[in-house]
From TrEMBL, chain A:
The keyword Calcium does not apply. Signal peptide: none annotated. The keyword Transmembrane applies. The chain crosses the membrane at residues 56-77, 97-119. It holds the Pfam family ActD. It comes from Flavipsychrobacter stenotrophus. This is DUF3341 domain-containing protein. InterPro entries: ActD. Keywords: Membrane, Transmembrane, Transmembrane helix.
């Protein structure tokens, strides 16, 4: 949650983008992110992104679902409300497996979707700064994070040398915040 | 690209030694068990039945995999397609062994009371249930389905392989053979559906307890065979990779095979549980007799070991992505899965004829080793006869850049 300074470069070709990304990584500039209109295969590797731990989170959510189901059903049928179903024992694990399975899947699925949204900072009702209006259309946008000691002119010159079509310096909020694009004026009035 | 497989002396000697152990066990079994009491005689034949059926099923899976992948026009198998081809082309040999064993049991085996304790429907006596099933459970039906299955598996297994070899000398980018294999694959799926997925497990395995039946049984057998058949392919791929062959196979291809081992372990558990829960819930004595013997009776050790080895271990060990791309874990798990499903077939077949007098002892282990020896010998011999890469295949480029 901080306003930071970014150097933004727009590329119009993947074949230019990939060498530019590796040049940025070698140069020592801090890469903020790359925005592309469609998933680009291999870009995560080129950017040196770590593999996500989302599946470990999914496993933990699944375990939560399993234990919730088994715990809750066994509490109902063995302690709270014992019912004799056709002479079966009160603690009848086989009969609970389908529901346990479903709750495991439900917890894992819902939990992973929410975690995915959190990690990617997307959610209904939140805003994120858009560096370039064509980042969802036909341009690949690479952003560098600058600090007070970095020379803006050097950063722009460097980005131009990697083949950028457009460059700019922007002050922007780096993470997400509450708000809606279509109600922008209302929120601004509220905050004023 | 030329990639020949020369059988290493060590592999050949190992396979011959294993066959030697198997033959020795068979001779010792014939001397010691066939002269013994009824239980010993039953054990002699039941163990042979168990191993020959198990190995027929897991080798037959290789033909099914080729057919299914050809029909789906998948390229991921092409990098190591020669491995399932070599295994599938030998499935009929195990089928023939199984055929000989089952025929010996039907025509040459009776206990001292004149009852066939392995296939009780051969000697129904006055048993109303068995007499009621006589229209299907009789030697004619048995031989008809079994011979047709073994012959057709032999035909298709060898046909797929010979087409694949013919493709190497075909003109470049020629798709004639590709579409021939495509049509043949559709036909084989029908054959496989009518054999492995229905009649053959009914006749060979389920009729051991002829009073009991389950409509899910053949699917359950198929799932068991499929996951161990995939593990078998994995073991050969890893072995050939370690020998320096199969340069086109990358970790991406291993990952695919690993996914099959993982996913079909879960699928097996699904069918295992579906069969178990319906019988447990309905609680009809005709049906529960099957699980009474296995879960609470003398087989409870194998029953729970079966579940732990075939479900808990794959789900916990193979779930993570890195473990499906690691040579050690996939080799270890492939062996565990094959052993686990060997146990699964053991607990399907043994309780009927042997009751509480089951053993896993010198005879069971020796017979298993003998069959492993035959498998290694036959498959390595077939592998060495042609290039290990399907040169000139129209999918070669696609398989080289495949990503799991």
């Amino acid at each position: 949650m901080a306003i930071k300074k970014f150097a933004v470069a727009a590329y119009d070709d993947e074949d230019v983008l990939f060498p530019a990304v590796s040049k940025v990584r070698r140069s020592g500039y801090k890469m903020h992110d790359v925005y592309t209109p469609f998933p680009v295969h291999g870009l995560d590797v080129a950017m040196g992104l770590k593999e996500t731990d989302l599946h470990i989170a999914g496993f933990i959510y699944g375990l939560c679902g399993t234990s919730t189901a088994v715990g809750f059903i066994s509490w109902i049928y063995t302690i709270d409300w014992k019912i004799n179903y056709g002479g079966k024992p009160h603690f009848s694990l086989p009969a609970w497996i389908p529901i346990t399975f479903e709750l495991t899947v439900l917890f894992a699925a819902v939990g992973m979707v929410l975690t995915f949204c959190y990690l990617n900072q997307i959610m209904p009702g939140v805003k994120k700064h858009v560096f370039h209006p064509r980042q969802s259309d036909d341009l690949f946008i690479l952003t560098l994070e600058l600090n007070n000691h970095t020379s803006e002119a050097d950063a722009i010159a460097f980005l131009k040398s990697t083949g950028a079509k457009e460059t700019s310096i922007q002050m922007a909020e780096e993470s997400w915040w509450y708000g809606r694009w279509d109600k922008k004026e209302e929120y601004e009035a509220l905050n004023a | 690209m030329n990639d020949r497989f020369e059988i290493p002396a060590r592999l050949r000697n190992t396979s011959l030694a294993l066959i030697g152990v198997g033959v020795l066990t068979l001779v010792m079994g014939a001397v010691m068990l066939l002269s013994g009491n009824d239980m010993d005689k039953t054990r002699f034949w039941a163990v042979l039945l168990h191993d020959s059926v198990f190995f027929t099923f897991i080798t037959g899976v290789s033909i099914f995999v080729q057919a299914a992948v050809s029909l789906a026009q998948g390229a991921w198998l092409t990098a190591y397609r020669r491995v399932p081809e070599a295994i599938g082309a030998n499935a009929w040999i195990f089928g023939t062994i199984a055929l000989i064993v089952t025929l010996c049991i039907i025509f040459g085996f009776k206990d001292s009371h004149g009852v066939n304790t392995i296939y009780p429907w051969v000697t129904p006596g006055t048993d109303k249930i068995l007499l009621g099933k006589k229209a299907f459970l009789n030697p004619t039906m048995f031989i008809g389905f079994s011979v047709a299955t073994v012959a057709l598996w032999g035909f298709f297994g060898n046909k797929f392989r010979s087409y694949s070899i013919a493709q190497e000398s075909a003109p470049k980018n020629d798709t004639k053979i590709y579409w021939k294999v495509f049509r043949l694959s559709g036909l084989f799926l029908i054959v496989y559906g009518l054999s492995q997925m229905s009649t053959i497990p009914w006749l060979w395995v389920m009729s051991v307890q002829a009073h009991w039946y389950s409509t899910l049984f053949s699917w359950y057998n198929f799932a068991s065979a499929f996951v161990s058949g995939m593990s078998l392919i994995m073991l050969w791929v890893v072995y050939l990779k370690n020998q320096g062959n199969l340069q086109l196979v990358t970790k991406e291809h291993m990952h695919d095979l690993g996914k099959f081992m993982f996913a079909f372990s879960i699928f097996w558990t699904y069918l295992w549980f579906a069969q178990y829960m319906l019988i447990w819930y309905a609680n009809i004595p005709d049906e529960t007799v099957y699980f009474k013997l296995r879960q609470h009776g003398p087989y409870s050790v194998i029953f729970y070991a079966n579940f732990i080895i075939n479900f808990c271990m794959p789900i916990l060990i193979l779930m993570a992505r890195p473990s499906k791309r690691n040579y050690f874990t996939v080799t270890f798990m492939a062996m565990v899965i094959i052993f686990g499903h060997w146990l699964d077939f053991f607990q399907m077949i043994m309780p009927g004829p042997l009751g509480e007098h089951w053993h896993i002892n010198w005879y069971e282990i020796g017979t298993f080793m003998g069959f492993v020896g035959i498998l290694i010998f036959l498959v390595s011999r077939t592998l060495s006869k042609s290039s290990l890469i399907q040169n000139n295949s129209i999918l070669l480029k696609e398989t080289a850049v495949h990503i799991a």
